[in-house]
Amino acid sequence: MTIVDLDRGILTGTRPSPAPTFLVSPAESRADLDDYRALRHAVFVEEQGIFAGSDHDRVDDDPRTVVLVARTPDGALLGGVRIAPAVEGRDIGWWSGSRLAVSPAARTHAGIGAALIRAACALAEASGALRFDATIQSQNESLFVRLGWRTLSTVEVHGRPHVHMLWPIDRVERLARSTKAALGALLDGLDAPAGYVGDDAAPVPGSDVLAACDAILPSMVERDPEWAGWCAVLVNLNDISAMGASPVGLLDAVGARDASFARRIFRGLRAASEAWGVPVLGGHTQLGVPASLSVTALGRTDRPVAGGGGSPGESLRLTADLGGGWRPGYTGSQWDSSSHRRSDELRALNDVVPALRPTAAKDVSMTGIIGTTGMLAEASGCKAVLDVDDILVPPTAAAGDWLTCFPGFAMVSAERTPSRTPLPASVDTAVCGRLTTGQGVDLRWPDGIVTSAIAGTVTGLGSSGRASA
After folding, report:
1. Which residue among 95, 117, 184, 385 is buried most deeply as judged by most CB within 10 Å?
2. In Å, how far are 45, 146, 147 from 78, measured between CA atoms?
3. 3-state secondary structure of 52
């Protein structure tokens, strides 16, 4: 057997993997935490004298704090670090790392500190952070820079020079690139009605009719056909509502492998049609094909609200239904605020945009709240600056997930002055930013730091030309 294994290694070029010299993992027991805190005390109190008596602080008492430890395979502690939401009692998508400590005997080990830093960055992003920073001792700045961190400022902490550093998180940028960035080139030559570039629905020339058309991902139709049917109605009616129109009817196009599967899609379509009180007027059904579903919604208004009607200096507002929760199987990506609502509550959502009287409005789509704000700003020929602490977030959702998910009902709008018209009881609303000159979306944090969420345009479709209207 040994000879065979050796021959296989020679033929394939593989070599046995060396045994790991250390492993980084979350602290899972009281012993892990006690060992980590003892190491911190030895480093920061006894060795460096930064603290007198104890380095314990409020972060240690925060139940959201996560400690990562590096241990040898036989369990000896080599180092540790902790990360936690930066705002006490609330997650707004801002996490910080602190108390990185490596035992003196392990400092000659290659990469203990670097491994802990990388693991902390990965954990912060996995926890939904859109900002991750740390204030570190100045002598460690070069290590963090080599790992990709950016220096924000120099500060003095406990009488010693420190550096405030930022780990770049491109979650929103990646989401925008993967979902919308190709649209400008793909749609070149397909002219939208003047003033309505990139809008949620399209005005039909010579009439007061608007039409919207959205398809559901085939994988979602295959996985959950009833929910796909429901969502196909929801997303199209949201598109109609975003332009201040009243829905009048739906058309569907359904593909399914057999009649039994198609029946499940229609079950969701029918339930949503009845819930919103909007009839299915007709459509097309084909069997014996892979699962597919698209719906067209028709609405009416003589004053459509464009997504590109904003101007620099106007306020940005988020109006959303924060009720419900993550759809089972879609945690972090789809927020279900609609399936538990009464029909009258769902129908009342159509009154939101007319009540707001905005200069521009868009319903939040697959790019999330930040990406959709970027599309409104792009169509308006502007840049958006969002005040993160003012953005509405459901209490049970991680802020980073909520700001990048597909919500059941959420509208981003621009306004010169706030409307006094009452909104439906099922929604919350708040001003959360401003349009300014430039491109992209910046996030302004409670400490005044501004980070870039989207550096340039989202779709590449350009301005609708209505910004000065």
Report:
1. 95
2. 18, 21, 20
3. coil
Distance, in Å, from the CA atom of 316 to the CA atom of 306, rounded to the nearest integer, reads 15
Backbone angles phi, psi at 161, to 5 degrees: -70, 130
414-434: string of b/e by CB count within 10 Å (b at 16+)? bbeeeeeeebbebbebeebbb
In a domain, 261, yes or no: yes
Buried residues in 212-245 as b, exposed as e (16+ CB within 10 A): bebebeeebbeebbbbbbbbbbbbbbbbbbbbbb
Q: What is the CATH number of the domain that holds 298?
A: 3.30.1330.10
CA–CA gap between residue 124 and residue 133 (Å, rounded): 10
Q: What is the pLDDT of residues 386-442, one digit of tens each?
A: 999 999 999 999 999 999 999 999 999 999 999 999 999 999 999 999 999 999 999
Q: What is the pLDDT of residues 88-105, one digit of tens each?
A: 888 999 999 999 999 998
Helix, strand, or coil (residue 120): helix
Beta bridge partners of 151: 165
Question: Are residues 192 and 324 located together in one domain of the fold?
Answer: yes
Q: Assign residue 440 the CATH number of its domain.
A: 3.90.650.10
pLDDT of residue 192: 67
**DSSP string for residues in 413-426:** EEESS---S---TT
Per-residue confidence (pLDDT) for residue 384, from 0 to 100 = 98
Torsion sign (Cα): 274, 280, 286, 290: negative
CA gap 365, 406 in Å, rounded: 6
Asked if 214 and 295 touch (Cβ cutoff 8 Å), the reply is: yes
Number of domain units in the chain: 3
**Cα separation values, 47 from 40, 43, 52, 55, 217, Å:** 10, 5, 11, 12, 57
DSSP H stretches of helix in 55-140: 58-61, 112-126
Q: Mean pLDDT across the chain, nearest whole number?
A: 92
